[in-house]
Amino acid sequence: MEWPKDLPWFRLQQWYFYGVATFFSYGRFLKAKLARSVASHATAGSGVASLGLGNVGMFLLAHHSMMSYLGWMCGFVLFVLSLRKRRYVYQFGQFAWTHMIVATVLMQSSCFVANVLEGLIWFVFPVVIVVFNDIAAYLCGFFIGRTPLIKISPKKTWEGFIGAFVLTILAAPFIARAMQTQTWLTCPAPDHLRMWGQNVECDADPLFRMTTVSVGDLAQARSTISHRFPYDRVRAVNAVP
Amino acid sequence: MLGSFFLVLRLGHVPVIALIFLVQMSMVKELFALAVETRKEKGAFYTKVFHPPLGFNI
Fold it and tell me: Quick check: B25 and A102 in contact, CB under 8 A?
């Protein structure tokens, strides 16, 4: 491409904004970990030390929001300084593209990271379900597929889509049952970050314990919820003009 | 590939986050390159949708 080569700091700007966004999104998790680590240790000093961050890291984390904002502002100044005549439209277009890309990718991956920190099962289970669904769709489509599903992907069939949907719904409880017995999958990440290859042990969350629930209990719970929910107040609020 | 994925999972939470980070970086790299390439698509429908009165492409 001719244009980006002529423009100063073109790639640098893109990666700079990515770096700032990464610092912002991942810093939030580190900050939350720091707070929990400090709270769980007897003295604040040992809690902070257990995170294994240096003084610079601690300073950045302590002023995380301000540093993120300043980082973005510096990037914006860099962008303004890099503007060249007759290329404004292209440069502003690339500026917008960069932000859209960074937002699109980082938003979903930070959700993944949040899930991983709550326990690997919240990451692995959806991934396995998607893989299972894809394989089931392929097999169903291969053996019983007749009706085309969508023009953009001509090999997909309605039979594959519906078959995979049904099979995934049927298989998901069994996959979840197999996974919830593994503590290394269900345990959340420990408060300290030095956990390469170490076995994580924790008390199983009640969510992962098998319990017998009768239909009567469910009906009772439903009536309790409906009793507890203040429908009459909602109606009263709605009635107020 | 499946084996290495399982190995990363067994190593703990931080390696999995590092793996997500690597995948995320490679995605961003490809998309940055794609953003530059879109300039080649002169007259693409979305450039006209976003700038109909201006008469130029993004």
Answer: no
